[in-house]
Amino acid sequence: MTIRxxxxxxxxxxxxxxxxxxxxxGGDLTEWVDGVNSLLTQxxxxxxxxxxxxxxxxxxxxxxxxxxxxxxxxxIDIGKLAMWCLATHHNFAGTWLSDYVENRLGxxxxxxxxxxxxxxxxxxxxxxxxxxxxxxxxxxxxLKEHGLSDxxxxxxxRITQCQSYDSALAIIGDxxxxxxxxxxxxxxxxxxxxx
Length: 195
Prior knowledge:
Blueprint lengths: L1 E4 L2 H4 L7 E5 L5 H14 L11 E7 L2 E7 L8 H10 L1 H4 L2 E2 H8 L17 E5 L5 H14 L3 H13 L3 H11 L1 E4 L15
Parallel strand pairs: 1-3, 6-7
Antiparallel strand pairs: 2-4, 2-5, 3-4
């Protein structure tokens, strides 16, 4: 069994896939995967000896999540899995990858309108007040100053739909190069912007 670490932003690049996501998986992730494989086998959802062997984990909204890929050719009864997901939602907060990305991360990256190939403008956010609305305003002004008003509006729309601070910061980084404010250490990384 392999459990691979990914980021929420990686999920936004998986628009051609579907998966089951379980949220709030604390403790030993191997035990979680073994338990889910066992439960789904007992329910007749995993068939013909199929087990999830490659699973992904990521953190979002201070929760550890597991993602179980639903690939074509796997012996999975999707109808039964959907019913199981609904029936056990209060225990596992199970959802589909497509729903999770749309509702928590602002949508898949490929779904975003194509942008002009003008490059991202530099935006001095490191060292600023870390309130996400303040940072969004600075980034928006920077985009507008560079003639990218449509991108500023798109960015704001995506940020107001996402569910976490880290996701919002990642969206800002999709539109501008996050740099240090004047007088700040240029070696600071993006993680130093706020908090």
